Amino acid sequence: MKTLNNANRREAGEERHVLEDLAYLRTVMVNLYFVGRPGAGDRQWALIDAGMPGSADLIARTAEARFGPGSRPAAVILTHGHFDHVGALAALAQRWDAPVYAHPMELPYLTGRSSYPPPDPTVGGGLISALSWSYPRGPIDLGDRVKPLPQDGSVPGMPGWRWVHTPGHTPGHVVLFRDTDRTLLAGDAVVTTRQESALAVMAERRELHGPPMYFTPDWERAARSVAAIAALEPEVVATGHGEPLMGPAMRADLADLARDFHHRAVPRRGRYVAHPAETDGNGIVSLPPDSTELLPALLLGGEAAEFVRQFLGEDVAES
């Protein structure tokens, strides 16, 4: 698979180029996207998702460097509302006086009505997954600043793009697609790194995967959403986690992921594998029983030891 950043990979916290009118910023472990040409000016661009908590100043500085001093977005578009995609949202929306748009089924988690279903730290086998019991699951409350995406599929502030409902990872997850060049902003419906693994995330290993296992409460809907994405036959896939990928090899792997989703993406066992969380327009309706049998610390296994050896030093790991 071809990546767009082999020749000029940058550190987290620096803007990375995808296309002339598309760039992304990685905040810790998650990407957010700027849609608009450099120097576009005030209200002539859009922000897709809003990164990790504490990243508002970095995002605002990066936006000004790309679009011009004082530049504010026409809109902020959310693929979904998990904590790592809305961490700086409240601060940025107020600073920019910008409207926020999300799918109607995502609004309960953005208007204070409902938390997301609990994560499942028993799936995925990696450090990030094992620690997921501790991640914030909302809700945040944006009040009347957040609005539903237009029913006609258009995307405010993004002419030529359309949104596609891709539930599974969250009830109101959407992807954004531009038909003219078949560019896909995939959120977490698919990702290009094994997001459950801290080692894979830090090394930016480029692998096409289904949505992060620990935060996906409806696997049947997730499977149908990946099939819908594959049917779009994108040329570029830019995801919430991992580097953007492009080209025929990526499309072939995406088609294979859709065909073999239950083997490649769905954990063999877990809280939501046999019984999904049930949600409606007000949030959680019912949850399957919590099947966790081990403390999260016991789930770290070999990856925690390897993580310590590689990033903290051999002596620390053996002490």
Automatic annotation (TrEMBL):
Domain of life of the source: Bacteria
Coiled coil stretches, renumbered: none
InterPro entries for this protein: Metallo-B-lactamas, NDM-1-like, RibonucZ/Hydroxyglut_hydro
Domain Metallo-beta-lactamase span(s) in chain numbering: 29-241
UniProt cross-references to Gene3D superfamilies, sorted A to Z: Ribonuclease Z/Hydroxyacylglutathione hydrolase-like
Protein known as: Metallo-beta-lactamase domain-containing protein
